[in-house]
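Schema walk-through. Below, the input block comes first and the output block second. Nothing else is stored per chain. Lengths vary across the set, and this one has 277 residues.
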Amino acid sequence: MKIPLLFIGVAALAVLAFALYLLPRPEQIGDALEQSGRLDDALNYYSQALRANPADDTTLVRVGAIHTNRGEPEAAIDVYRRLVELSPNDAGYHRSLAQLYEWSMRVDEAAEQQARVAALDPGDVAVRYSLVNYYILEKKDYATAIRYAEEIVAARPHDGQALMDLAQLYSQTRQLDRALATYQRALAEDPTDPVIGRSLARTNEWIRQTEALVQDYRVRLAETPDDAQLARQLAELLRGLGRGDEADDLQRRLGGSTPVPGAPAEQPAAAPAGTGE
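--- output ---
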């Protein structure tokens, strides 16, 4: 019985296809070589795999891990920049890229990636603490630092230390009404903490002194209603007490805009020095 040549050809192609299927793929060979410690050979096979499929994120992660473990942060950064381009909403890739930037002392780029992580992961408290420190120490941008500190408290509303940190930032930026309320929340969470109690007492004293200054400034402003500097100082004191409507009225009289919280400034003259323990 003769077997048709067409049938033989189809069978041969099927056998060849099955054999090719059984052959290990370049990324599989690379993984085996990596496990055996032959990292240069592994990178060569991973490169072959990426030439065939540039969007293979699993292989890119392996390449990034090799460069990281070999102390080659710039090469690892290139890999993770590619990963965040492929998966811009993957918080893990942004987190790894931020860490690599930190290792390379590229703090601004690290903070940019940390901000992406914060936007993608509302529960990541650690990255928000890093951003609070960055905006205070590197940028002196207390408004942004406070925003991230508020997000930490939102994620951990019963964390006494997080409440203390936020209260101190409010106090340092002259937002005394918010500082008072936040210290009170912190004290409710930990009534036996003497640091919170002292900070709360000090804030109450600053508020008392600020109220006295407000009354003094009102008298002086009534005597010299055209004193723009005195009016600005009074508006700032009012805003610190949470009396924004009164401050806005004064600001409109000055023809200016509402200020945002800035860098720490001196508290009322009679207040104790320092803003925290």
